Amino acid sequence: MSHGYQGGRLNLPFVGIATFGKYPYVEDWDAIDDDVCILG
Questions:
Q1: How far is residue 1's CA from residue 39's CA, in Å, rounded to a whole number?
Q2: How does 1-40 read in b/e, with b if 16+ C-beta sit within 10 Å?
Q3: What was the pLDDT predicted at 31?
Q4: Is the distance from CB of 22 to CB of 13 less than 8 angstroms?
Q5: Per-residue pLDDT, 1
Q6: Contact between residue 3 and residue 11 where contact means Cβ atoms under 8 Å apart
Q7: Which of 10, 24, 36, 37 is the most buried (most CB within 10 A)?
Q8: Secondary structure element (H or E) that encloses residue 21, with its range
Q9: Is the CA virtual torsion 12, 16, 22, 26 positive or negative?
Q10: Would you give the end-to-end CA distance of the chain in angstroms?
Q11: pTM of the model
């Protein structure tokens, strides 16, 4: 069974920063080139 503990990396939905739709987290808001955003 491979659960990721040995590699030190887990891909679980409740680990890390929660984002809408599991999209990647963007720190630099100036890098976002969209017309609409969802905050919450």
A1: 38
A2: eeeeeeeeeeeeeeeeeeeeeeeeeeeeeeeeeeeeeeee
A3: 86
A4: yes
A5: 54
A6: no
A7: 10
A8: none
A9: negative
A10: 37
A11: 0.40
